[in-house]
Specification:
Helix 6 runs antiparallel to helix 7 and helix 12 crosses helix 14. The protein is of the alpha+beta class. The strands form three sheets. Strands 1, 3, 5, 6, 9, 10 and 11 form a seven-stranded mixed β-sheet that branches. Strands 13-12-16-15-14 form a five-stranded mixed β-sheet. The chain has a four-stranded antiparallel β-sheet with strand order 2-4-8-7, with no helix packed on it. It has 16 helices and 16 strands. The protein starts with a helix and ends with a helix. The structure holds ligand 9MR. Ligand 9MR binds next to loops.
Length: 570
C-alpha cells in the first residue's frame, strides 16, 4: 500500500518543481533563477551539455521533474567577461545523457528553466525559422490554412512601383512605373532590398545543398508544400522571382531597393498605401544579384526547371557585365529617401562572390581570373562581407581541388574561431557586438558546420552547438532569441506585422537582432535604460529597432545552423 503522506510530499514537490514555487518543504523549494543560463530548448543526447552560472556555486545538480537528483557536478572558477560585465562558471553535464525533462539547480533552491535532453529537439524550431519567410511574403494574403491565427490580407501589390529619379534613364524616366511584385519584406519594415535579399537567399540555398535530405523531409504547410520540390526551394523561389523583376531588362543593371520614401507606420500591410519606388542601380546590387541568381540557376537545374535555369544564367551574366561597366556605383541615399541604405565602401568581396558563383555556373576562365584577383581570406559573412559565401560555394563544389589555399584559409579561420570559443566565458567565438549580433553568432555556427562537412571533424559541430546554445538562452540576457521557442522569448519584436496583427503571440520562428550598444537611445522616449555592456544590452521592447528587430538575413543562418544541428548532432 502506498504511504499517503509520502505520496503527498512527492506530489507537492513535483508541483513545486513544475511551478517554480514553494512546496512547503524548504529542501524542495525551487525558484527559477535568471542567473542560471541554459539552452531553453535542450540538448541532443550526444551533444556537449553546458550551462552557465552567474552565482557563487561550486556545485550543481540536475533534477528530473519529480525533483530527484539525477546528476551532480562541480563548477570551475568563474570567468569575467568584459563584454557582458559579469562572471560565469561553466556547469558541464555532458556525461549525463538520459533523455527526459530536467532543471539545473544550485544551492538546492535556485533552478534553471526546464530543458529537455533528447533527439530531434530542434525539428520544430528548424521548421518555424524557415516558415518565418512565408509569413514575410509581400503582396499575397496569408491564408489561415497555412498561417493559422496569423492569417492576413495581402498588402503592397508592387505592380505600380515608381522609378525614383536616382534610378531613371531614357527608357524608364523618373515617375514612370514598373511591376515588381512578391518577395519577402526585409525586416521589421516593409522594404525590399537586393543586397540583403541576396545573402539571405544564398544562405537558404546553401542550406538546401548541404542538408539536402533533411530539407527534402521538411513539410512546412505552405501553399506549395505538395509540389515536387523541397519547401525551402519553393520559399526561396518566391524571393528569387521578385529579385528578377529588379533587373532593368534594358541594360542588365539592378535596382538597389524597392521602398517607400520613408518607413511605413506600424500598421498592417493591407492598410498602407504610400507610393513605393525603385531606387538607384548600384554595383553591390548588381554583383550580389549576379552571385545569388547564378547560385539559384545551378540549383533549379537540378530540379529540372531548365527554362528558369537558363533565364537565370543569362540574367546573372548580364548583371555581372553591368557591374564590370559600372565598377564604382556606390549607393548614395537620395535626400528625399530615409529607408534602409545597405551602403558599402568596397566591392572587392562582392566581386569575388559573383565571380565565384559565375565560375561554378559557367566554368569560364574570365570568372576564375576575377576570383583570383579579388580573393581575400574568409571571415564571418554579413550583408556587406560576402566573399566567405563564394568560398563556401567553391569548397562545397566539384571545383574544390583547384583551390587548396582557399580551403586552408577557411579551415584556419574556423580553427581561430574554435580557439576564441575556448577562451570565451560565454563559450562563443564572437568577440565584438554589432547590430544584428545574433546573426553573427549564427553565421559563425554556419561556418563551423561547413568545416565539419569538409573535414568530418566533430570538433566543429561541437562548437556550432555552443553557438546554438547561446542563441537559445545561454547568453548574458537570458533570452532565447527566437520567438515562440524557449521559456523566455521576445514578446515585442520591432516588426510591423507582429505589432499590428492584434495577436498576442508573436509569429514564431523569428530571431531578433540581439544585444549591442550601437544605438543605445532607440527607446529613449519610453525610458528604457539599456546596459552599457554590449553582450547584455538588449531590451524586449518594440521601439528597440537596434536590438529587437527581425530581419531575413538574420534568420537565414539560423535556418542553416538549426537544420544542420538536427543532422549532425542528433
Ligand atoms: O542590418 C543592418 C545593420 O547592419 C546596419 O547597421 C543598420 C543601420 O544601417 O541597418 C540594418 O539593416 C536594416 C535595414 O537598413 C532596413 N531594414 C531593417 C534592417 C535591420 O535593422
Amino acid at each position: 500500500m502506498i504511504d499517503v503522506r509520502v505520496s503527498f510530499l512527492l506530489l507537492s514537490a513535483a508541483l513545486a518543481f513544475n511551478l517554480g514555487c514553494s512546496s512547503g518543504t524548504s529542501e524542495k523549494r525551487s525558484t527559477t533563477s535568471e542567473d542560471i543560463l541554459i539552452n531553453q530548448i535542450g540538448y541532443p543526447v550526444d551533444a556537449p551539455k553546458k550551462a552557465l552560472i552567474r552565482l557563487p556555486a561550486a556545485t550543481f545538480k540536475i533534477l528530473d521533474l519529480k525533483g530527484e537528483t539525477v546528476f551532480n557536478g562541480n563548477t570551475p572558477q568563474p570567468k569575467y567577461w568584459h563584454l557582458s560585465g559579469d562572471s560565469v562558471r561553466v556547469a558541464d553535464f555532458t556525461a549525463f545523457s538520459k533523455p527526459g525533462e530536467y532543471k539545473l539547480c544550485v544551492n538546492d533552491t535556485l533552478c534553471s528553466y526546464p530543458f529537455t535532453i533528447g533527439t530531434d529537439l530542434y525539428a520544430e524550431l528548424a521548421d518555424a525559422a524557415l516558415k518565418s519567410y512565408y509569413y514575410a511574403r509581400c503582396g499575397v494574403a496569408i491564408d489561415s490554412a497555412f498561417g493559422g491565427q496569423w492569417q492576413r490580407p495581402a498588402g503592397h501589390p508592387d505592380t505600380l512601383v515608381m522609378v525614383h529619379k536616382s534610378a531613371s534613364d531614357t527608357s524608364r524616366p523618373a515617375g514612370s512605373t514598373l511591376s515588381s511584385p512578391g518577395g519577402w519584406y526585409d525586416a521589421g519594415d516593409y522594404g525590399k532590398y537586393i543586397v540583403n535579399s541576396s545573402i539571405t537567399t544564398w544562405t537558404l540555398l546553401q542550406s538546401l545543398k548541404l542538408n539536402l535530405e533533411y530539407h527534402k523531409s521538411q513539410s512546412l504547410n505552405i501553399p506549395e508544400s505538395s509540389n515536387a520540390v523541397p519547401d525551402i526551394l519553393d520559399e526561396t523561389l518566391v524571393n528569387l522571382s521578385w529579385m528578377m523583376t529588379m533587373q532593368d531588362p534594358g541594360d542588365g543593371g539592378v535596382y538597389h531597393k524597392l521602398t517607400t520614401k520613408n518607413f511605413d507606420d506600424f500598421i498592417m500591410p493591407h492598410k498602407t498605401n504610400k507610393q513605393r519606388y525603385v531606387v538607384q542601380k548600384s554595383t553591390s546590387a548588381a554583383l550580389d544579384y549576379a552571385a545569388t541568381i547564378a547560385t539559384a540557376s545551378r540549383i533549379v537545374r537540378e530540379y529540372q526547371l531548365t527554362e528558369l535555369a537558363d533565364e537565370m544564367e543569362q540574367s546573372a551574366t548580364r548583371a555581372w557585365d553591368w557591374a564590370v561597366q559600372h565598377p564604382n556605383s556606390f549607393y548614395e541615399q537620395p535626400a528625399d529617401i530615409s529607408t534602409g541604405a545597405y551602403p558599402d565602401t568596397t566591392y572587392v568581396d562582392e566581386r569575388f562572390w559573383a565571380a565565384s558563383e559565375l565560375y561554378l555556373l559557367t566554368g569560364k576562365g574570365k570568372y576564375k581570373e576575377a576570383m583570383l584577383v579579388n580573393y581575400q581570406k574568409p571571415t564571418t559573412p554579413k550583408w556587406d562581407v560576402v566573399h566567405p559565401l563564394g568560398v563556401i560555394s567553391v569548397l562545397t563544389s566539384d571545383k574544390r581541388p583547384e583551390f587548396e589555399q582557399m580551403e586552408n584559409d577557411f579551415i584556419s579561420y574556423t580553427d581561430e574561431m574554435l580557439e576564441k570559443e575556448q577562451a570565451s566565458p560565454y563559450l562563443i567565438s564572437m568577440d565584438a557586438y554589432a547590430w544584428g549580433s545574433n546573426s553573427d553568432v549564427a553565421n559563425d555556427g554556419m561556418l563551423k558546420l561547413v568545416a565539419y562537412s569538409l573535414t568530418g571533424d566533430q570538433k566543429y559541430a561541437v562548437s556550432a552547438q555552443n553557438d546554438l546554445d547561446y542563441l537559445m538562452g545561454r547568453n548574458a540576457t537570458g533570452y532565447s532569441f527566437v520567438t515562440g521557442f524557449g521559456a523566455k522569448t521576445p514578446q515585442y519584436p520591432h516588426n510591423r506585422i507582429i505589432s499590428a496583427d492584434g495577436i498576442k503571440e508573436p509569429i514564431p520562428g523569428y530571431i531578433v537582432g540581439g544585444p549591442n550598444t550601437i544605438v543605445l537611445n532607440d527607446c529613449e522616449s519610453e525610458n528604457v535604460v539599456r546596459s552599457t555592456f554590449p553582450a547584455a544590452s538588449y531590451t524586449d521592447t518594440e521601439c528597440s529597432y537596434s536590438t529587437n528587430e527581425t530581419a531575413i538575413n538574420w534568420n537565414a543562418p539560423v535556418v542553416f545552423l538549426v537544420s544542420g544541428m538536427e543532422v549532425f548532432l542528433k
